[in-house]
Batch of 2 targets.
Target 1
Amino acid sequence: DGGITQSPKYLFRKEGQNVTLSCEQNLNHDAMYWYRQDPGQGLRLIYYSQIVNDFQKGDIAEGYSVSREKKESFPLTVTSAQKNPTAFYLCASAPQSSDNEQFFGPGTRLTVL
Amino acid sequence: AQSVAQPEDQVNVAEGNPLTVKCTYSVSGNPYLFWYVQYPNRGLQFLLKYITGDNLVKGSYGFEAEFNKSQTSFHLKKPSALVSDSALYFCAVRDRRSGGSYIPTFGRGTSLIVHP
């Protein structure tokens, strides 16, 4: 899984609670991404950031928030507004060049109880 | 928007036989195409990519992919399958978003099962 770490591996949350998923990379990559994976639906883009202190909404940003205060870190907060948060969350990074492949973290499985 | 389609949810093949996992694309302009593999409860791993040049691209773990412009396809292949190749495979295409950023768009994935 390259130089990207995600924590925790498993996370349980009660309804109505916000929770933050960690993503750290030591690859010196400019771009970072958050995806949500559900069975049979592939990967759906939540947020992405091409540079520090800047980020953009992806296809399913509602109910999520992010920050990019450091190049190495791109935490994702799943808020209580996210109606169906139980899923597998993947973080990725890539060099800025658009023809480069992404490097993925090991993922966090979030379960809402 | 650019997109890829993986027409098969699952592919079954016997160990030692050749395997093919299909991907077709829809893009305007020249496509940038990628294949990734995902083992259970893990992140995705990059296998190979096509940007330009030879239509046959070689990648990791003995995999290769053939870019076919006339058929708008980028099928993943391996001459002899291993049980350890059993995993979920994703095709992706570079897509330009509003604001100018290029972000990969992924297919729904194909589950490859290699039987002993």
Target 2
Amino acid sequence: AQTVTQSQPEMSVQEAETVTLSCTYDTSENNYYLFWYKQPPSRQMILVIRQEAYKQQNATENRFSVNFQKAAKSFSLKISDSQLGDTAMYFCAFIYNFNKFYFGSGTKLNVKP
Amino acid sequence: NAGVTQTPKFQVLKTGQSMTLQCAQDMNHEYMSWYRQDPGMGLRLIHYSVGAGITDQGEVPNGYNVSRSTTEDFPLRLLSAAPSQTSVYFCASSESGRGTDTQYFGPGTRLTVL
């Protein structure tokens, strides 16, 4: 069975500071993909970043970067220079082979002015 | 492109009633899927389809039916609504369902079953 665990239900960060959201997963598969999705109050799901398991290099997208530790099955998201617009729920997600996505329970991030 | 559209945005049902949540996409995507989102939980996959005429079960399929007669549409049917089906429902699509694809999500339908 595939599981995704986000152990931080809620986090706060001051504007312009850096915050790291944690995610661990469990799988016996070797080839898979990991994602971070953002869900603002509008409810729209937005892809933030994607990591391919067979790539050792950590993915980055502007202010967003990941720390992917395959052996530890850990996939954390770092947000640098936090902005008010980053306030949202963040979901870690996982897919192997294709077709079935598994999501974590989410971390609510509040960016304070 | 309208992307992924869902109707209705809100719905209130009584226990035992049936209804269909509509989902459509105009991106010619082969892969479409339905999720439910409950408080304190992430999205859970209900059913998915890899092309017209092909559907399969996800993590939580009980109480829901789907069909895929066209590439564009993927309706979700609740046969006999139960309070446990109170949730926010999301439809999503991507080119093929692979991890390299970007999933596009609809705006969601908030369903309340009394």
